[in-house]
Amino acid sequence: MAIFSMRMQVIKRSAGRSSVAAAAYRAGEKLVDERQGITHDYSNRTGVEHTEILIPENSPAWVRDIDRQGLWCAVESGEKRKDSQTARELRLTLPREIPADQRIALVRDYVIRNFVSKGMIADIAIHNKVASDGLEQPHAHVMLTMRPAVEPGGFGQKVRHDWVPDPTGRTQPDGRPVMVESNAHSWNSADYYERCREDWENTANAALARAGSMERIDRRSLLERGLARMPEPALRLAYHLKDLRGALKERFGQFQMAKHYQAVEARAKAAFARLEQAPTRAGDTVRNFQRFHDWIDRQLDRLSSPREGPDRDRPLSPDISMER
Known about the structure:
By secondary structure, this protein is an alpha+beta fold. The protein has 8 helices and 11 strands. The chain has helices at residues 19-27, 61-64, 68-78, 100-114, 190-210, 237-252, 254-277, 282-303, and strands at residues 6-12, 30-33, 38-41, 48-54, 85-93, 122-130, 136-145, 149-150, 154-155, 163-165, 179-181. Strands 1-5-7-6-4 form a 5-stranded antiparallel beta sheet, with helices on both faces. α4 (100-114) packs antiparallel against α5 (190-210) and α6 packs parallel to α8 (282-303). The longest helix has 24 residues, at 254-277.
């Protein structure tokens, strides 16, 4: 069954993350973070089917033939604040029903229309691995620059927006003005992101139709679609923990990996057992499963970037609480 899954996140230094480390992990390459003097080597990683960098038309000369190492080191060196946001990442699930030989062109066309045409540089990595049902799980990671490239060798101002009173004079029931975005072309705009979601739905469905598949994806929630059935979260505990187990083994070695992995697995199983014993509302269930999925993603990202200081070899906290 084809499903809609599109997630956007921002890579922040305040969370201890590096765009160089993220790019190396997603592309399965060895990259050196020149700002920190750290080498991130994921050249042995499997499941990476395709990578490429897309540059906007009319980009300055210094960026036209840039490679992954040069791009993200330039991004990191251009950000001076310790809490800088260095990149935005989009994760797209590709319907299995779309033939493998059509996926690269599909992702490339979508990314150019929605992001590169606006001035962002896009670093694409298409992955495919075995899902929990034994079938393939194709998906794309797209890392996007937060600033447009400019001469003479650097990046310009971020494309932002402010919240201003609605020019039409709309007000809230209590009399307060309705606030709207001042810049409809802002790269951080919620309306812009929703338009990107809609375009991916239309793009993927057109590809499914061309492939002769009757499957379709829908970005709307079950409630918005008028469906009364319970959501079915895309979660397989063993599948998610398998990725974490591999990252822990690479980072800490066999003994520490086994010790910490067992603690994480026990906490996760206990948390989901509580959900089964005390069912919650549909929306709460989905949020709880999403919290677990996001927790796994955060740990993988943190493990992909070596930590500094006396706790650099201490495993991450295994606490997984979904009761809040």
